[in-house]
Amino acid sequence: MEINEGDDDEFGFSRNYFLAKELGGSAKKSTRKLSDIDLVDEQELRTAVANIEPKHEKEIEELMSSYKTMYPRWVFEIRCGFGLLMYGFGSKKALIEDFASTALTEYSVFVINGYLHSINMKQVLIALAELVWDQLRTKRKNPSGNLSRGQQPFNSRSMDDLLAFLDEPLAEENDGFICIVVHNIDGPGLRDSETQQILARLASCSRIRIVASIDHVNAPLLWDKKMVHTQFNWCWYHVPTFAAYKVEGMFFPLILANGNTGQSAKTAALVLLSLTPNAQSVFRVLAEYQLSHPDEEGMPVENLYTTCRERFLASSQVTLNSHLTEFKDHELVKTRRHSDGQDCLYIPLTAEALEKLLLEIS
Amino acid sequence: MTATKAGDSPSTAPESSANDHIQPFYLLHKASTSRNSGRKSAVARRIDLSPSKSSTSTSTNPQFDPHKAFQSVWSKIDSAIKDVLRDVNTNVFNEIHSWVRQSFLAVTSSGVPTFAEATKSFPILNHATSKQLFTGLVLIKNMEFVDDLLTFEELGLFLKSHACHVANLSSLDLSTKNGVGGCLRSLLRQFLTVTLDAADISILASWYREFGNHNSPVVIIVEDMERCSRSVLSDFILILSEWVVKIPMILIMGVTTLDAPKTVLPSHVLQQLLPSKFTLGSPAERMDAVVEAALVRWCSGFSIGHKVAVFLRNYFLNHDGTLTSFIRALKIACAQHFSIEPLSSVLGLLAEEDSEGERLLALSSGMAAQVDSNLASCLTELKRSQKCWGIVVMCLYEAGKYNKVQLLDLLCEALDPDIYNSIASDTHTRSGKGFEISSSSNHSMARQYLQKDGPISQAIEKVRDLPASSLSQLLKSWENLAVDVLEINVKVKELQPMIKLEEGKSLKQDFTDLAKRHTSRTAANIKESKTINEKAATLLANLVRDFMRPIECIPFHEIACFKDVEKLQSALIGDPRRRIQVDLLEFHEFLRCKCCSRSCNIPLQSMPDTSIMYTLAQEHGDLINLHDWFQSFKTIVTNPSSKGKRKGKQSPLPKKRKETNEHENKSESSIQARLCRAVTELQITGLIRMPSKRRPDFVQRVAFGL
C-alpha cells in the first residue's frame, strides 16, 4: 500500500518525460481525431454500458466483506461523536449501506445521494426534523405532551430554526441520534460552499451523526479548518472497493457518445427555437450562405447586413448586432478574419449538421 | 450490489434500493424499537452480544463497556483542557469585563430614555458623541480562527455569568447573502429566543426596556471581523451606533491585526467606534497548558506512547498548527485506544472512582471484585510511577522555561523508552561493579544518552547558569510540584536551606559593597554559588534517572497507553489525492486476484478497465489524445496474448469485418462502452477533465505524481 520514494520519483520522471515529448515538436503530438474511430450509435453504446461484464467479482466481494471486521470500530467511533469519511477507489455506496443496515440497526439511518445533481437541503432538514420529532413522540408516549411541536410546522420554519431543533441537547447521552449517510459528499449536488456549510452545521448537531464518502481527489478542499475540526470531526477510512460506479456515473455524459456534432446541433436548434422569428431568419441567411460557399472562411458582416436589409429582417446595424450578440453568446456563430482583412461570420457546424438544423427550425 | 449484500439482507432490499438510487434523500431504516424501551446498559449488552463484535469475556459486564469508559475518560480530559484554557484567558476576560462595565456606565450616564422614547422606531439624537459605540478589539495571535471559536464562546459565557446580555455572531451571520437583516434576526433569536420574520431593531429596544433587562449591558461579539462582508458589517455598525443611546450595546470583535478595522471599514463608520484593545494568550502558551493538563498530569489515566507523541508534535508543527486539531487528534487517539485495547475499559472505572486523595484505595478496593488483584496492584504501580514521571517532567519544564523550552518537545523526549533504558541499564552495570555514582559522572552519563541539544539536557544545563534568585524560585516551584510525593520532596527540601543561606549572603554582599558589585565578587564566591547550581542540576539529573520512567517501560502500560501511530495517522490525515491513484495503479494489493499477479506497470487484459486506462494515461503528458487512448485500450483488451507490443499503432478496422460483422460490432460497442465507463470513473475521481470545446479530441490530466 505504501509507495516508497523511488516510485514517487518514477512518476515524476514519467510525467516529465512525456511532457517533454509533447512539447518537443508539435509534429509529434498526436493529431488524430476522435471521429476517426468508428463510433457506435449512442443508443447502442448506452445498452452496452448497461451490460458491461464485471471483472474480479469474487475478489471485490471478498474485499467488501473483509471490511466487515471494521464495523464494530466504526460504530464505536460514531457513538464517540466522530464522523466517518470513507475514501478510496470504487463505489462505496453498497459498503456503507451494508454497514448501516447491519451495524447501525439501533439508530435511524437517513441517506442523502450526493451524486445526484439537485438536492434541496431545506427539504433534507425538514425530513430530518420530522424524523426526530417522530422519534421523540413515540419514545415519550405521554399524550399530555409537554412536547409541543413548536409554534409552526417544520416546513415553514427557517434553516436556522431547523438546525437549532436538531441541535437540542439529548436527554441521555447517545440516546437516539440519527445517522446520516451522505454518498458522495463531494458530489455535484452538494459541491457548492453554501451547501457544505449547511452540511457541516448539520453534522455538528447533537442529534446527528454523519457517515460520508468522497471520490474526488480534491474533495478536502471543500472544507476549511473550522468545518473539519469542529463540525464534521472526520475520522478518515481508506476503503477502496473497486466496485463499479454504476449509480454515481449515471448522470455523466459518455465520452464517446458521438456528442460533438449531434449534440451541438441539437442544442443549437433548441436555442434557435427560443429566439424571435426574425433572429431565426437572420441565422438562416448566414447558414444558407455558408452552405452555398463551402470554401470561404465565412460571410462578411457587411454582406450579411445588406442581405438582411433587402429581406426586411434588420432595419439597422444595431438590430443586426443585437441578434449577432445573441448568437455569439450561445456559440451559434463565430467570427474570424478573412484573408483580405475583413471580419467574417461562420457557424461552427458541419454541412450535414447545418442542413439538419435548418430543417428542424423551418 | 454485491452478492454479500444480497445474501445477508432480505430479498426485498435490492428492489427498494433501485428506486432509492434516484431519490435525493430517503430513510434507510428507523431505529429498532427494542432499544427505545431498553436502558442504556441494555444497549451496551446488546452490542456486545452481536456476533460481529470481537467480544471479550469481561465486556458482558456493563461496567466494562468501552464506550462508557471512553466517555468518562474523555470528559475528564476535555474538562481539564477547558479549565486550563479558561485559566489562560482569565486575565483578559476580567479585563474585558471591567471595560464592559465602565463602558456601560459611560453610555448610561447621559441619562436613560423613557420607555416610550426608547421604543420609538426612529432614534433620538442628543448630540453627536452619544452615537459612538464602545468597541473592544480582541487581538488574536493565531492565523487561524478555529482555535479562538471556543475562546469567544467562553467569553460569551463568562460575560453572561457576570450579568451581561451576550450574543455571538460569526462571519457567516455577517455575510452578503444574509445581509444586515440576517444578523439582526440572529441577534433577536439569541436575545429573545424566538424567531421573527421582521428584522427590526426596535423590537430589541422594547425587549430591553420591558423585562427588567435594563440594568445590564448588551454585548455583541463578532468572532472573526476580517472575514465579514465589509458592507454588511458597516451597515450593522451604523445601525448599532444609531441605537446605542436606547440600548447600551457594546461591540467586541476578534481581529488578527490592530489595523483590521482601518482596512475593513470606511472612515465614516470608523468614526462611530471607540476602540479599546485586548490581547489573547499566544498559541504556544495555550499549547503548553493543554499538554500539561491532558498528558503530563495523569488526570484521566489515558496516556500516549513515544511514537504517538512525536507524531502529534510533528502534526502540530508541520501539518496544521492549530490547537483544535491537536486536541481532536488526542480524542481520536483516545477513542481508538478504547476500541482496540480490551482491557482499557478498566481506565473508565479508574476515572469514575477517582476522587483525589483516596485514589489508590478506591482503585484497589473497588476493582478487586472485578479485576484480579495482580492487575490491580500493577495498575497502582503504574499510577504511582506515572505521577512521579509527571512531576519530574514538570520540574524539567519549570527549569526549561528559562530557556524557552516547549513542553511538547520535552514530553516527546521524556516519553522515549530508549533513552531511559540506556540510562537505566548503564547505571545498573556500574553500580553492580560497586562504582560509586558521583554526581558529576552521573550527570555526564545521562547527558550522553539524552539528545545533545534535546530539551531535557537543555533544561538541566540551564539550571547551572541560573542566577540565585531565579534558582530559589525554581526550587520553590519544584517543592510545590512534588508536594504529594515524599521521595522527591525530601530531596528538593535538602537544597532549600542552602539556597536560603546563599541568598542571604549574596544579599548582604549586595548591600555592603554595592558599588563594587561586579568586580568584588571573589572567585570563591562564584565558586560557591556555582556549587549550589551544580547541586540543583545534579538533583534534576538524578530525578530524571530515578523517577522519569516513561510509561512504555512499565508492565501493563498497554492498558493506559496508546501506541498505534499508524492507525491514528490514517484516521487523522486522509490523503485521497495520493491514495486513489495508488489504488488504481496498484489495485492488486487490494484485490489479490490470481490473474493480474504480475507487475502492475504492464497493463493486462484482466485488470479492471479503469486501472488499464489510468495506467495508459501515465504515458501521456497534460493532454491525452482520446483516439490514441482508445486504440491502446482496445489493443490491450482484445489481445490476450499481446504484452503491449502492438500498442496503439493498430488500425481499428481489420479485414475480418465482413464475416463476423455482427459479432465484431458487438464487441466494438462493448469496448467503447467500457472505455466510456472507465473515463467516467476517472472523471468522478477527478483525475481527468473532459474535452473542452477548443480541444474536442483531448482529455486533460489533472493529477500528476503522488
From TrEMBL, chain A:
Q: Mostly located where? A: nucleus
Which GO biological process annotations does it have? Answer: DNA replication
May I have one GO cellular component term? nuclear origin of replication recognition complex
Q: Which domain of life is it from?
A: Eukaryota
What InterPro entries does the annotation carry?
ORC2, RecA-like_ORC2, WHD_ORC2
Instruction: Please verify whether the record's keywords include Metal-binding.
Output: no
Q: Tell me where in this chain the Origin recognition complex subunit 2 RecA-like domain is found.
A: 59-239
Its function, per the record, reads: Component of the origin recognition complex (ORC) that binds origins of replication. DNA-binding is ATP-dependent. ORC is required to assemble the pre-replication complex necessary to initiate DNA replication.
The record's section on PANTHER family has: ORIGIN RECOGNITION COMPLEX SUBUNIT 2
What is the name of this protein?
Answer: Origin recognition complex subunit 2
Q: Which organism is it from?
A: Trema orientale (Charcoal tree)
Automatic annotation (TrEMBL), chain B:
Give all residue intervals belonging to the Origin recognition complex subunit 3 winged helix C-terminal domain: 577-704
Q: Transmembrane residues, as ranges? A: none
Residue ranges constituting the Origin recognition complex subunit 3 N-terminal domain according to the UniProt record: 53-345
Mind telling me which GO cellular component terms the entry cites?
Answer: DNA replication preinitiation complex; nuclear origin of replication recognition complex; nuclear pre-replicative complex
One GO molecular-function entry: DNA replication origin binding
Where does it localize?
A: Nucleus
Q: Which Pfam families match?
A: ORC3_N, WHD_ORC
Please state the protein's primary subcellular location.
nucleus
Q: Which UniProt keywords apply?
A: DNA replication, DNA-binding, Nucleus
Q: Which GO terms describe its biological process?
A: DNA replication initiation
Give the span(s) annotated as Disordered: 1-64, 640-671
**Polar residues biased stretches:** 1-20
Q: Where is the composition biased (Low complexity)?
A: 50-60
Q: Does the keyword Hydrolase apply?
A: no
The UniProt regions of compositional bias labelled Basic residues, in chain numbering, are 643-658
Would I find Membrane among this entry's keywords? no
Q: Which InterPro entries match?
A: ORC3, ORC3_N, ORC_WH_C
Give the highest taxon in the source lineage.
Answer: Eukaryota
Question: PANTHER family under this entry?
Answer: ORIGIN RECOGNITION COMPLEX SUBUNIT 3 (PTHR12748:SF0)
In the record, the note on similarity to other proteins reads: Belongs to the ORC3 family.
- From the Swiss-Prot or TrEMBL record, give the protein name: Origin recognition complex, subunit
Q: Which organism is it from?
A: Trema orientale (Charcoal tree)
What taxonomic ancestry is recorded?
Answer: Eukaryota, Viridiplantae, Streptophyta, Embryophyta, Tracheophyta
